[in-house]
## 1
Amino acid sequence: KAGVTQTPRYLIKTRGQQVTLSCSPISGHRSVSWYQQTPGQGLQFLFEYFSETQRNKGNFPGRFSGRQFSNSRSEMNVSTLELGDSALYLCASSLGGDLRFGEQYFGPGTRLTVT
Amino acid sequence: EDKVVQSPLSLVVHEGDTVTLNCSYEVTNFRSLLWYKQEKKAPTFLFMLTSSGIEKKSGRLSSILDKKELFSILNITATQTGDSAVYLCAVGGEYGNKLVFGAGTILRVKS
């Protein structure tokens, strides 16, 4: 079974630009969660989508948004990029709508650098 | 606010040693605790624990959860250089799949 895939793997953007990252979950998984990982803050939860609905949201500004499609693939968008948005963005997929249904598996991540 | 604290922050051991990594948490409506191993890439799932006192074991790795005292430990016996990594503890609370992560323990195994 193929794992979680994320594209692109690396991105370099300029301050003020916007970026869209994509995540394809494991086949059959319906939940996609997004995390930001930085050396200073560690892994922080951005948001979670299940059945095309955002169910949980972390403490990030409105510049961070996402969506999920009917095939469970998800995208996250960051507008008006700031230097502090440079990070590894990780996507994780889960089978069901709750951890009772199974654990989360992470994709390889997208390394975003903002200059 | 939900919080997960791991200790130690880092440690260096020699091959063959046994290590114990600690994770304590304060989470509303605790549902499960997960351990991940992260090398220079995405976190790799190790264990998920939902019931107190049950030990999960996979080869040289094992973990136990104490829901009364709100902590978990991850044991690695007969360590190898390939065990060198950051070990992350994460807790799921409330509803859904949101995980709160600790800062991680950096383990270095010297040959």
## 2
Amino acid sequence: AQKITQTQPGMFVQEKEAVTLDCTYDTSDPSYGLFWYKQPSSGEMIFLIYQGSYDQQNATEGRYSLNFQKARKSANLVISASQLGDSAMYFCAMRGANTGFQKLVFGTGTRLLVSP
Amino acid sequence: SQTIHQWPATLVQPVGSPLSLECTVEGTSNPNLYWYRQAAGRGLQLLFYSVGIGQISSEVPQNLSASRPQDRQFILSSKKLLLSDSGFYLCAWSVGQARSGNTIYFGEGSWLTVV
């Protein structure tokens, strides 16, 4: 079975600083994808970044980068130059071959608060 | 560009009443469609997914059902709501054959409170 673990219930960061949100995963799938989503207080889930299990390089999308360490089964999200609008819940998720790639399994999330 | 609309945004329903949440995707054809539920303070749980009209797969046995009467329409229903059905329901979509890199995009969500 697939499992995502986010051990940080809450994180605080000052504006313009970088922050790392932790995510570890467990799977027996040889092929899988890792995702990060942002959920502001409005509730919508916003896709941020994707990393494939066979990708050699860490994914980057603007201020977001994914620190992928396959041997450690970790996929931490790094947000550079934090902005007040980054305050939200952040969810790590994965999908894999064993579930036909249809099921996106989520962690419990990390609440990020960016202060001025 | 593709958009997804979900309604109603919020609703308060008494126990034992029926439920119908609707979701429509625009700007794409033959999407994969999903219903997720998020309980308070928790991550999302997949309830149903559909790869085509009339094709519904259920992930968790429960008091809910889903239907896909049209290519880009996905409906979540219940005949009699339970208190435990309260939560935040999100419709989502993706395109193409399911694989690890297919991104799933979510709608705005519907807050359901059963009283």
